[in-house]
User: Which sequence fits this backbone?
């Protein structure tokens, strides 16, 4: 999506994002607006909280952790911070090239 900063990495065992399995949250600034992306159900994560990441950088590997029936990437984009109610979720297709 865009360069950003890893906000957090969560595992199914930390109790913060049950059902999502291994999760990475990244904050991005796009044209002066902050967006948060969520990448869930990852098999592995190769970044840590506070780390700067670049557009196109590998941050983890798709998997089937959490409540899933098969391997896939659960991807969300939120204007501002992430929230479980998804009240600020935006269509990710509008954010991708």
Assistant:
């Amino acid at each position: 999506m865009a360069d950003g900063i890893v906000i957090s990495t969560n595992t199914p065992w930390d109790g913060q994002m049950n059902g999502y399995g291994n999760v990475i949250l990244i904050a991005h600034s796009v044209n002066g607006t902050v967006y948060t992306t969520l990448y869930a159900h990852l098999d592995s994560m190769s970044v840590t909280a506070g780390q700067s990441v670049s557009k196109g950088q590998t941050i983890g590997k798709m998997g089937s952790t959490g409540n899933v029936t098969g391997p896939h990437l659960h991807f969300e984009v939120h204007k501002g911070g992430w929230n479980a109610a998804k009240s600020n979720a935006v269509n990710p297709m509008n954010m991708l090239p």
